[in-house]
Amino acid sequence: MNAKPACIIIHGSTFFAPILVPLLFYFLSDQAYIKEKAMEALLFHILMGVAIAISSFLMIVLIGFVLVPIFSIIAIYYPIKGIIRALQEKPFQYPIVHSWVR
């Protein structure tokens, strides 16, 4: 399997199946690079989901109204950046979660 289309699909999955697609690529691929990118994307999507959920709860004390848009922009920006980097065949690492995957 070619890494370029796999990475494009993994990064783009944030818009249609952010948990399912990275899991499928992680378990079905035999290439270490694709598995690493799938795990990074999966952890990033889970982290952003948790951050947005906590921020939504914090709307009770008004700080959530600031945090939800910030985390939403981050959750959209980095997968788009990953897609662009995959199209250019340049390496891309999600912030924070890349160090968790080794």
TrEMBL record:
It is found in: Membrane. Keywords: Membrane, Transmembrane, Transmembrane helix. InterPro entries: MamF_MmsF (IPR019109). Its main location: membrane. It is a multi-pass membrane protein. The chain crosses the membrane at residues 7-27, 47-80. Signal peptide: none annotated. It comes from the Bacteria. Pfam families: MamF_MmsF. This is DUF4870 domain-containing protein. The lineage of its organism: Bacteria, Bacillati, Bacillota, Bacilli, Bacillales.
